Structure formats: C-alpha cells, structure tokens
Amino acid sequence: KETLAWRPDVVHCFKPKAYSGLAAWWLWQFHRRHIRLVVDTDDWEGWGGWNEIAPYSAAQKRFFAWQEQWGMRHNHALTVASRALQTIAWSMGIPPERVAYVPNGPGIGSRYSVSGKRSSEPVVLVYSRLFEFDTGRLVQILREVKTAVPQLRILSVGAGLYDEDAANFQSQLAAAGLQDAFTDAGWVDEADLPDVLSQADVGIYLMEDTLLNRTKCPVKLADMLSLGIPVVAENVGQVPEYVVHGRTGLLRPPGDDEGLTADLIHLLQNPAQRQTLAANAAAHIAQNFNWEVLADSLQKIY
Questions:
Q1: What is the pLDDT of residue 112?
Q2: Over the stretch 219-244, which tens digit does the pLDDT of each residue have?
C-alpha cells in the first residue's frame, strides 16, 4: 500500500527473496500492466549460494530458492551485479535485452577525506567478513609474509559475519604467533573508513572458488582500490573486473597460497611498484565504477 501511494512508474526491488521478493511477486501479479517492475540480484541466494552457509530452516531454504528463480524470471527488467549472475540469467532463458549488468561501485562516499597519516611500518589490510574463505589459509599466508617482512603490521577492518568465524580467526592468529602484529579495528563508521583503510600499503582479498563467491560483487574490494590500495587477490568471479593483473593489483588462481604470499612480499618490498598500482587502482574505479556512471546505465531499463 505504501508503494502504491507513491504512484510510481517504476519499482526496483532489491533481492528477489524474503520480503522484497514477496513485494515483487505481489506487484507482478496485480500491477504489472501499469507499474514497470525491475528486480535486482547481487548474490546467489539458493542452492550453492547463501542457502549453504546461512542458518535458515529447511522450509526457508526451499522457499528462498523458489523465490530467486521466480523473481529473476518475472519482471520487466533484471539488474545483476556480476558477470556470473548475468550468465546465469541468460542460461535461465531470460532475454539478454532484459538483463542489465550494474556492478557495485565503492561504498565509501567521496565526501569523506583522508588525513594522510601513515604508519612507518609496512601494513597489510584484511578487509573482510571472513566467510568467503578458510581463515586458516589467510593466517598461514600472513605468517609466511611476516617471516620475510619482520616489521609487518596486519590491520583487520570489519566484523566477521558469524561470531564463530571471528573467534576461530583470533585463535588461529594466536597459534601462529601473530597477535602482537595484529590490529583489529572491528566495525568502523563510514566517515572514518577512508582514514582507517588508508593506513594499509597493500590489501589481500581471498575468494575461494564457490558459486556464492563467483556471483557476489564485493564492495569492500572496490573500497580498497578506490582509496589507492593495491590488492593481491584470488582470480574468482567478479574480482578481475576490479583487480586488473599488473595494473591495479596482482591476481593468482584460487588456492595458490604460495603465489599470493610471494606477491604480498614483493609489493611490500617494492614501494615504487606499489605507488604505480595505487594510482592505477584509484583511476580504474573512478573511471569504470563511479556511481554516477553506474546510475546512468539504469536509464535505459527504467
């Protein structure tokens, strides 16, 4: 009722599941002749996606999987946040002209400034909710990097999606003898994020090769690069759209922990290359993932 009270010409429902999915179903069933319905999907919600890791009941999982498939098919246009979701939509028989690729830009607003204060010690940034990978792999990589770069500092920003993952990560760090080098900034307000993230010399972004990871579009990755932080990452899903190998960061195949370790060490020991990658990273995000540009792409489907 509240939606109809606005008398909209277009309604853009974000996520085809849960309450948003129910609203989209209702609009399509009863109002599609006079309201244009656009549905957005930015993750894979069903089997192989969030259904595999979220604590949903069996009934919820079945319902969400049905909602996702139904919602992606029943609309006037579909926006997708990743190339993998675009491919899935096409494979479902959705006409390409109805599918619009609209990836995420940075979540940090341009109105926030960076003070420029930096640590004199090399800093690796872990900016993650910790569910996309085995944290044991991350700790092993960080331990090898610290062996090669003894003065290394590790900065972690953000809260784990699940308390168990965060607690396990802390235990693994302690077992690896890394706690003295580790700073946990936790959840940081948006206005403070640029200053906190910009303490880093290089970021690491692990993404194991799963359907959930292939379909997601990581805002945190865009955040880091927009601030000029070169990133060493696994080449999975949407990641290479942001981390262009040798230009904005360095990529390795998923699971190549030795390669990721070597790349981190190399960048930490080569400030000139870091500076080049940093400038390229900020420019790449500004040119290709600026929200004003991304918003313009919606004009055609609206």
A1: 61
A2: 999 999 999 999 999 999 999 999 99
Low-confidence ranges of the chain (pLDDT < 50): none
Number of domains in the chain: 2
DSSP notation for the chain: -HHHHT--SEEEEE-SSHHHHHHHHHHHHHHTTTSEEEEEE-S--STTTGGGTS---HHHHHHHHHHHHHHHHSSSEEEESSHHHHHHHHHTT--GGGEEE-----SS-TT--------SS-EEEEES-S-SS-HHHHHHHHHHHHHHSTT-EEEEES--SSHHHHHHHHHHHHHTT-GGGEEEEES--GGGHHHHHTT-SEEEE---S-HHHHH---HHHHHHHHTT--EEEE--TTHHHHS-BTTTEEEE-TT-HHHHHHHHHHHHT-HHHHHHHHHHHHHHHHHHS-HHHHHHTTTTT-
Same domain, 144 and 274: yes
List the CATH number of the domain containing 231.
3.40.50.2000
pLDDT of residue 119: 72
Residue at a domain's end among 45, 71, 102:
102
Same-domain check for residues 143 and 33? no
Same domain, 53 and 131: no
